[in-house]
Amino acid sequence: MNELLDVSQLKKYFPNNNGFRAGSPIKALDGVTFSMKREETLSIVGESGCGKSTLGRTILRLSEPTSGNVWLDGFPVGGASPRDLRRLRQRMQVVFQDPASSLNPHMRIRGTLAEPITNFKLEKGRSAIDDRVAELLKMVGLPPETMRRYPHEFSGGQRQRIAIARALASNPDLLICDEAVSALDVSVKAQIVNLLNDLKEQLGLANMFISHDLAIVEHMTDRVAVMYLGIIVEIGDRDSVFLQPAHPYTRALLSSVPTIDASKRRERIVLKGEVPSPANIPKGCRFRTRCPLAFGLCAEEEPKLREIGDTGHFAACHLSEESATASA
Amino acid sequence: MLSYVIRRALLTIPVVAIVAAIVFAMLYFTPGDPALVIAGDQATPAQIERIRVALHLDQPPYVRFFAWIGQFLQGDLGVSVFTGQPVTYMIAQRLEPTLSLVVLAVLISVGVGVPAGVIAAWRQGGTFDKVFVTASTFSFSVPVFITAYGLAYIFATTLGWLPVQGFSPIEDGVGEFISRLIMPAIAISMIYATLIANVTRSSMLDVLGQDYIRTAITKGVPRSQVLFRHALKNAAIPVITVVGNGIGVLIGGTVIIETIFAIPGIGRLTVDAIMHRDYPVIQGVVLLSSIAYVLLNLIVDLTYVVFDPRVRY
Fold this sequence. Notes:
Chain A is an alpha/beta fold. Chain A has eleven helices and twelve strands. The model of chain A has no long low-confidence stretch (mean pLDDT about 90).
């Protein structure tokens, strides 16, 4: 059986014109390859500006990739005709960060939720659609009467529930959550994360969870991919990445997560310098300018993602094997 | 909702009263004695005095102000000192040409401005958008009277397609009506339509960047519906505001346009009245147009309800 999602060498460059002359393009995605199984949660983590959100949008073809392709259940998304693209998008839906801007303020909740149902011809007739909308609202823990209200009548957490219901309306196989809980209060955040976990179990959803919040990621994910400057630098099962991080960037990220448990406290690694501009990516290893372990080879050769042992755990570092054994 | 309408309507009263006081004071402080102007060069001091008494110019200003307001409330704006006709009658006679001009100008401006703004925003950075931005800077910087004379030179004098001047009421045939009014309407629309188009474009750009537009695309909403149902409705509020306020500016613009194209409307009436120091007419026109403007703003506020469910009165 195919993987649910295959992403191959996906690149997205944004033109960098300052009005007078063309600068070198901004490489938001610089060759991203990974795949996802059905019913799996894969978290994409990294600093802001590393290309996480661009990755989500480019997979959905909300922005056209510069090169590379995406396959959903074996069907290519890039190059799909508008008709096929609609059919593919029915199967992958997105929840955005800001629940205030992801719902059309002019539409009642019913209208927002009914639109995918009618567009994808999933139900016919007023009452059938009403029933489906009520069912969706119940699924995300909201009373069905709320369908007659407008988005501004809800709190942030409720709106995010509605955004999730909207995403579920077309019966997707894959949910892309683009910082879906970052704008919420801690308590609400936990509720939404639990809701996403429950829905995943109930509906057999795969969840691509884009986040910068490692504490939440650790709590809910099956696998983790760490992004830095437009590429994946490390990807693997949650436990291998969190317990035996093989990339120095991952270790630095993990060391920045606050924890109360003293026994879990990791040595704090503070990275020096700023993230280089994605318009001017360093030669060789793109992390070497900030890496505490950088040596001669790093400036000459860009490390490829290599599997560590036979664990499905990959890292793009010349020292990945040594690091993994050292931290194990 | 109804109580809001009533409250808003009541609130317009002090506004109109203040405008009335300013209009009155402006004329009071303008140098020159209307009695002198009306009497002419040959008049004796006794004749001038008689006119002054007849116009109540010998009374203190506050007495004249309240007398004027009292009459106005009874629908009487006084009598023109120049023609001797009632001001309300003179205004009523001049209303049709001006209203026709303004309505046609609004139709043209909204009909051209909104679609142009939507297309420019949708194809931001594309050829249409680039042409649009350049053209709008140009049409924004050319004064009305240049556009007016330019149009008249091309379409009336050179090509002979349209009559140069004048007005023909709609009762006398729609074709003639349009052919006389189209040039002045286009001339007066240029800046207004550009303004509407620019506001539409920037408002649409803002909305098109919102996540609910992205989700609409993933929901499988067809492009035209994304643009008009999801985006334009949300982008409408600033556009309505500028359409409404722009009508006030249009009314001001009619003064120039009606003079250039010899249209017997309110604008011409105003200019003539100012030339003749016909105080009652000036006061009447300014007062009525400010009331029209206040009402227009009220209507704009009420249309927000239609376009934004968050607005509840």
